[in-house]
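Memo to structure team: turn this sequence into structure tokens by end of day. - J.P.
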Amino acid sequence: MILLIDAGNSRLKWACLQVKKLQPGGAVARSAAPTRDFASAWDALEAPEAVFVTSVAGEKFDKTLANWIKRKWKREPEFLATRAKGFGVTNAYREPERLGADRWLALIGAHDAWDGPVCIVDCGTAVTLDALRGDGSHEGGLIVPGLALMRDSLKERASGIDAISLNPEARTGLLATDTGNAIIAGSLYSLVALIERVVGDLSLEWKEPVQCLVTGGDAEQILPLLSVKAEHCPDLIFTGMAVIARQSGAAQPAARGREKDGHEMEYLSADPGQPAVARLVVSAHG
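Reply from structure team:
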């Protein structure tokens, strides 16, 4: 089993890759005590063969996570970084490393799973939109505040509404009849309008339909309001991580055989065209 970890600004998410098949994991809210978060998430998990991480949580958090993994499972996690080109995708950024690793992985996942052009919408603390052509060319993207940031900024900066309690679960139509619901509906429709305009403009510019793929923690609030055809892809980043894990050889099952002396050997897969590495497997028989 390979553990895939996505450390975001507010949540810690994970999935597992079992014999090339992506399995759902879980998510916990990040707290001020990250080691408690790690224990809550993974104390009962079997020891993984490898750990791949994407993180926007900062250097201090990443170091704490790496040390916990090494103590818990004696594994060195691989932190995935953005590249100028790889896995069928070409990064549009002039400084490729400035594109967030989570966005890079979502691009890889979308290119692997979908044919044709797509617009990837990640609805998290910030909302990002990335345009990807069918040939894997990333054309660039947009970043705007997410739902919570929009609402919080209004409460902090607009006079007279700082004391209003917001209930994001409240049902609201197009128009609200109180200030709290007006803020909630306004933030939702702001993002909906942006997404629909970008997808429509891309389709016109590229002269072909552009598929909208929506991921992130707030995706389920946005999706029902969209009039453009959209797919919910909650595991898009993990799909991209799985592509990298498979191509690294980490996700390849080991082949077993017997040497002439009768010892059982486990042949660990290597990169295509490279020789396999053999490891002795010792078992006790009663």
